[in-house]
Amino acid sequence: MSRFAGAAEARPVDFGALGAAMSGMRGGFAAGGPVHFSPAPQPQHFRPATPGANPTAGWDPFDPMGEKGNSDRQPPHDAIDAARAEGFAEGMAAAERMAAERGEADAQALARIAAGLEAISAFDRDALAGRLRQTVMFLVSRLIGEAGVSAEMLGRRVESAVALLADSAEAAVLKLNPEDLPLVEAQLPATVTAVADVEIDRGGFRIETRTTSIEDGPDAWLAQLAAALDRAALPDAG
Q1: Distance between the two ends of the chain, CA-based, in angstroms?
Q2: Which domain holds residue 185?
Q3: Which residue, 159, 181, 198, 205, has fewest beta-carbon neighbours within 10 Å?
Q4: Distance between CA 166 and CA 213 in Å, rounded?
Q5: Residue 179 has what pLDDT?
Q6: Shared domain check, 216 and 166
Q7: Torsion angle of alpha carbons 14, 15, 21, 22, nearest 10°?
Q8: Which residues form the Flagellar assembly protein FliH/Type III secretion system HrpE domain (predicted)?
Q9: What is the C-alpha radius of gyration for the chain, rounded to an integer number of angstroms?
Q10: Are 97 and 155 found together in one domain?
């Protein structure tokens, strides 16, 4: 009996009976010897072309490119430096050609200018003076017209003109453009009476007394400028 409580009692196995029972299963079993396995030839992963030769003979792992044995081989950085130097030389040559061409063009332009100046050496001085006067007068007239009328500046000019009167206590009449009258009417002294006059341009005025008349304004300025230009002489051509 088993030493373990509740365990089944061990029985000897009859191998003959076991074989008889298994012989009825799917064709049964038959005794036979061991099967010998002979592997079929399979493709080789690597087969050297010349098994007797050493392909790495003489190869130095510390000099894989073989540069130590080839002293004539040009290092890569030398080739880059040579290409850079060649490109720099080509660029300098191109720049020199462009500078020479530009210098030649400038010389030709200067020659044409010199020839033109020689052609007009005998110019009409009176005609040139007239054109200069006309140009200056046009520019100044346009500048004065665009500046407009400032009430403060107009008041100062009227005050300065009144101070020039021989007798400041004498009654005076101030004539202005109707649009300028409101700008200075409140600033006038008691002895000066403002009167609108459409014949006077904006920015101008005329002060009249029994003995004195003072006029100021853009028209007077332009007249003085024209007289100064007429008196001014052109510099010598030489």
Answers
A1: 153
A2: 149-231
A3: 198
A4: 10
A5: 87
A6: yes
A7: 160
A8: 110-215
A9: 61
A10: no
* CATH of residue 182: 3.30.2320.30
Kindly state whether residues 219 and 178 are assigned to the same domain: yes
Q: Is residue 93 part of a domain?
A: yes
Name the domain count of the chain: 2
CA distance 153 to 203: 9
- Same-domain check for residues 115 and 154: no
Predicted TM-score (pTM) of the model is 0.39
Q: What is the pLDDT of residues 70-110, one digit of tens each?
A: 655 556 667 788 888 888 888 888 888 888 888 888 888 88
pLDDT digits 0-9 by tens, 144-174? 665 567 778 888 888 888 888 767 677 888 8
Residue at 10 is within a domain: no
Distance CA 219, CA 176 (A): 13
Tell how strand 213-216 and strand 172-176 pair up.
Answer: unpaired
Instruction: State how far the alpha carbon of 94 is from the alpha carbons of 82, 87, 89, 97, 168, in Å.
Output: 18, 11, 9, 5, 82
Q: Is 1 domain-assigned?
A: no
Q: Give domain status of residue 222, yes or no.
A: yes
- Cβ atoms < 10 Å from Cβ of 183: 19
C-alpha distances (whole Å) from 133 to each of 39, 40, 42, 123, 236 are 121, 120, 114, 17, 17
DSSP code, position 63? -
